[in-house]
TrEMBL record:
It comes from the Bacteria. It comes from Clostridium kluyveri. Pfam families: TetR_C_8. Gene3D superfamilies: Tetracycline Repressor, domain 2 (1.10.357.10). Residues 11-71 form the HTH tetR-type domain. GO terms for molecular function: DNA binding. Keywords: DNA-binding. Residues 34-53 bind DNA. The lineage of its organism: Bacteria, Bacillati, Bacillota, Clostridia, Eubacteriales. This is Transcriptional regulator.
Length: 180
């Protein structure tokens, strides 16, 4: 019982820090954010922050890694099953819902400061999967197909975020699947 309480407190503390960081990063560049203003906004002691992170950049890196891991798990789950139009549609609906739920951080990583580390890690997380191509595709075409598709999908997600997610995840998923 005590373990669960502790886990919940840790999660709440990290969540509070995360929300404060998201809010600050929407207003200023990461280089201009101090641990003091972050912890003040999150209502957390600085020593608590340093218990979990070395500095702001370490926190951002851990958040980035956590999001990539979550995305990879989602991709793993769906990519092996996605063989039909409906499967692909379900997969992309889930992806757009994931982005929508986490829009604050995705907007920061993909749009505001163009976090190329995040984009490259995202590409690396999914580039080893293969998309079924028709039998007439050459080995050279197959080699370049996945990076093209990944970059296109990231571009569509960026555009969607920049347009304040003015279409539903289902509509966006449908657009992507039609393009594939």
């Amino acid at each position: 019982m005590e373990e669960k309480k502790l886990d919940r407190r840790i999660r709440k503390t990290k969540q509070s820090l995360f929300h404060a960081l998201t809010k600050l990063m929407s207003k200023k560049k990461i280089n201009n954010i101090t641990v003091k203003e972050l912890t003040d906004l999150a209502d957390v002691n600085r020593s608590t922050f340093y218990h979990y992170y070395r500095d702001i950049f370490d926190m951002v890196d851990k958040i980035r890694t956590e999001f990539i891991d979550d995305f990879s798990k989602t991709y793993d789950k769906f990519s092996k099953e996605a063989t039909t139009y409906d499967d692909l549609l379900s997969f992309f609906i889930y992806i757009f819902e994931f982005v929508q739920i986490n829009a604050g951080i995705f907007k920061i990583f993909l749009c505001d400061d163009m976090d190329y580390t995040f984009i490259e890690k995202l590409k690396d997380a999914i580039k080893h999967y293969e998309i079924p191509l028709d039998d007439t595709s050459s080995e050279l075409e197959a080699h370049y197909c996945m990076p093209f598709i990944i970059s296109g999908c990231i571009g569509v997600i960026q555009q969607w975020l920049n347009n304040d997610m003015n279409a539903s995840p289902k509509d966006m998923a449908s657009i992507i699947v039609k393009m594939l």
